[in-house]
User: Fold this.
Amino acid sequence: MTLMQMKYVVTTAQAGTISKAAKRHYISQPSLTAAIRELEQELGITIFDRSNKGVSLTPEGEVFFGYAVQGKTVKTNGL
Assistant:
């Protein structure tokens, strides 16, 4: 797991769609999707429920999101 993957999850959850999150990170949608899927495989969980209307966090994804936000805050504040 990388810090960037955590940022991708946070941005995607906040944006509601993978394409909007990809634009915010200036990367392609397939690259963002691959990074999130790789993280899901590494952790053995599904972070997002995907539909043609966007994404929403699964229960496991909500737990991960909480940790990711904490980690992002700690990294940003230099703690």
The beta strands are 48-51, 54-57.
